[in-house]
Amino acid sequence: MTERGERPVVPWALPDPGLEATLQDPDVQPTIRDVDDATYVPTVLDSQWTSFEPEPEPEPEPEPEPESAPAPEVLHFGPGVPPLGLTNTALDVWRGAETRKGRKEHRGRLHWLRRYRLAAAVLAIVLAWLVWQRQTTDLRITQVTMRTSSVLGCDGTAEVVAVVNTNGAAGAFTYEWKRSDGTSSGSREERLDRGQAEARLRLLWTFHGKGTSKATARLVIESPGRHTASASFSYSCR
Description:
CATH superfamily of the domain at 141-237: Immunoglobulins
Distance between the termini: 206 Å
Strand content: 25-35%
Structural class: alpha+beta
CATH class of the domain at 141-237: Mainly Beta
Radius of gyration: 73 Å
Shape: rod-shaped
Strand order of the largest sheet: 2-8-7-4-5
CATH architecture of the domain at 141-237: Sandwich
């Protein structure tokens, strides 16, 4: 340590007692190399002996990448080229022919249905009515009328005709003739076919001898349902 005001002694300023001074030979001249000498290598001073440091060179800016050209736009018109391996039907579908054909067939079926649906509906109604008539309709008597001559002469035979009207169904009905003299024909049966809506029944009544009388014939239908009708005439013989 030194006292304040005294100049400090630098150690390397003192002469080394082990070193001896060397005198330069006056005949020896220093060699100065030309700067163009290829073997000349400049000496870079240590950083602590330089007054400034060289600034680093700026890095070059990266060059902008070239813009890629846009991909060309491809426009397709129509179905294009079909892939390999398609059958004829597949080709038709690809080209749209099969679709148009299917639409035409669909329109044809609709036209056929519109044209014949009314006739089909009428036919279905008629068939249903016939089946219903066959299965559910029974014979039914709707009306009974009778007629005969008004006057009968000596030993004459009177003809009494009864007309029985039905609903046209197939079946049978039973009837009996009854005369005013107390006699009867007994129970009889009349059978009708389908569509036969009328039946005619005849009664022959014969008279003999002289005299006058009034006769009445009566028809009684016993089934189906009960119906009656009568007709009268006069017998006169002198």
